[in-house]
Every structure is written in C-alpha cells, then in structure tokens.
Amino acid sequence: xxxxxxxxxxxxxxxxxxxxxxxxxxxxxxxxxxxxxxxxxxxxxxxxxxxxxxxxxxxxxxxxxxxxxxxxxxxxxxxxxxxxxxxxxxxxxxxxxxxxxxxxxxxxxxxxxxxxxxxxxxxxxxxxxxxxxxxxxxxxxxxxxxxxxxxxxxxxxxxxxxxxxxxxxxxxxxxxxxxxxxxxxxxxxxxxxxxxxxxxxxxxxxxxxxxxxxxxxxxxxxxxxxxxxxxxxxxxxxxxxxxxxxxxxxxxxxxxxxxxxxxxxxxxxxxxxxxxxxxxxxxxxxxxxxxxxxxxxxxxxxxxxxxxxxxxxxxxxxxxxxxxxxxxxxxxxxxxxxx
Length: 339
Description:
Blueprint: E1 2-3, H1 14-23, H2 35-48, E2 52-57, H3 60-69, E3 76-81, H4 85-88, H5 93-98, E4 101-105, H6 114-120, E5 131-138, H7 149-161, E6 165-170, H8 173-180, H9 184-187, E7 193-197, E8 207-212, H10 220-226, H11 235-245, H12 249-268, E9 275-276, E10 284-288, H13 291-297, E11 301-302, E12 304-307, E13 312-316, H14 323-338
Parallel strand pairs: 1-11, 3-4, 3-5, 5-6, 6-7
Antiparallel strand pairs: 2-8, 7-8, 9-10, 10-13, 12-13
Helix pairs in contact: 1-11, 2-11, 6-7, 8-12, 12-14
C-alpha cells in the first residue's frame, strides 16, 4: 500500500544508510566523544556560527523535552500554537518532564502572530502565576505552513521585550528552509533553541538540539543525561547528520518532497468536492474529505483523517514517494468522487 501518512513510515534514505555503514567500522569512543560527532559538530558550527552548542538525541519528543527543560524552571510557562505538536501530540511528556505550564495561542493555518503572542503574555512578576519563559514555534507548522524570516523576527522581538527565549520545533526544518529559499544560517538568525529534525528527513533515527548565544556554563550535557537522551553510540546519529549537511543533500531531499506536495495540489485541487484546506508550502497537504470517501481511499493509500470537526485529511510526502503515486491517487480519487 502506498504511504502518504508520515515520513515515519518510510525506510532509511540511501545516503543515510551508507553513513551508518561507514560509521560502523571499528571501535569509537562512547557518549559523543568520538571523531564523527566532533566533525559533525564542527560542520554545524561552520554552517550556523561558532557560538552554538550542539547535542544529539534519539527522537523528537525527547529533543523538545531536553531543549526546553534545559532553559526553564518548574515555575515557568511555555507558549505555543493551539495545534503545536508540543501540545497536541506529545501526550503529557512536556508537563511531566519539564514541569512547566503550557499556554496555547489561537493560530491561523498553524501560525501565530506577534500580536497574538504579545496579548497572551500576562502577569509577569506575579508570584501566583507561571512566569513566561519560552515561546515554542513549529517550523513548518503542523499544517505545513512556514513562518517567514520577518515573522520570526517580529516574534523574537516580542520574546526580547518580555525576557523570553524563542524555541523552534523543526521536525521538518529543512523543508521550511527550501520553501523560503533561505540558508540554514538565515533560518536560525532569530532563534535561541532549535530542535533540528533528522528522522522525518530520511534518517533511521536521530535529532539535533542546538542552543544559540546562551551561556550555560556547559550545563546542557547534564540535562541531556537527565532527559535520557545521551546516546552511548552517538556516532551513528552524528554520521547521518553529517551526510545530510554535506553536498546539499538536505536541500535535494526537501525540494523533492516539497515539489511532490505542489504536484499533488495541482493534480487533486481541481477534483469536484475536494478542497485544499491550507496553503501548500512544504511537504504536507490538507484536504477536506468526507469520512465515507476517506474510508474508500484509505483502502489503497495510507493517510490520516486529521480533523473530524473540519473533515480534514492530511497527506505527507517522503523522500521515497513518486509523482506516479500522486497520479494514481488523483485518478482513483476522481473516480470515487464521480460515483
């Protein structure tokens, strides 16, 4: 069955698998004290600037918990969009591990604005209220939409006004950068903490957490251990990131999946009874579709019924999806809508 449900369904991209194979030769120091981790960290510093700290984790939830937990106290609050993965799809992990209150902000196609954020931040200094500390944005959002560099700058200004940090959950960060035609350096100019996704980009496993311009006295490594994200064989995560960042591979893969989403929009958007629910900017497409039609299509294609109240479905395109699969989907969908 063809998968349009999630990149997590896909296998490992060939360059990532080769990187794992290459890293699997001989012994290497454990817990990130190996040459591959050092080289990959150096590569990230070359790309993003020397004033960063880089840590590698197993998965996205762990990465967010580690990154946010390293810069907050239990009396703090974290602000995010009402559809943010941090709030909707990480169960109680953030509250349980970090111990902070999470406040949601109404969003439009997944994005919040500087104005809505500013109005949500209240009672700073009030001992009876959680103290604002971090704003967490998803880039791209849960609906595949992208914050522009100017929007990030405006939101960061609100953070600075309120002595808060800006965290970005970047599970599909490479797709956002390709959509904006921006370098990774430009994409991170206004960010304090970045969770940089690897798994959804084609890796077997692994994410990176990057801290910008924050003086920690090297305390992050202790938080990494506390969060149970310290990998004993860290070179296997780092090697995949090294392969991703070299020779523009991240751009190639992200451009392919973004282009598939646009092709899907073109193929499906004109079918009667089907509407594109949100702007198509990265590798996700949301459609309005009746439950009965979804059940018919779901017999042939894996994809999610995303929002029952709005009759929305979500389709996500991975590195191994093809234009033919999209054409097959569109053909079948057109047949079913005629009936």
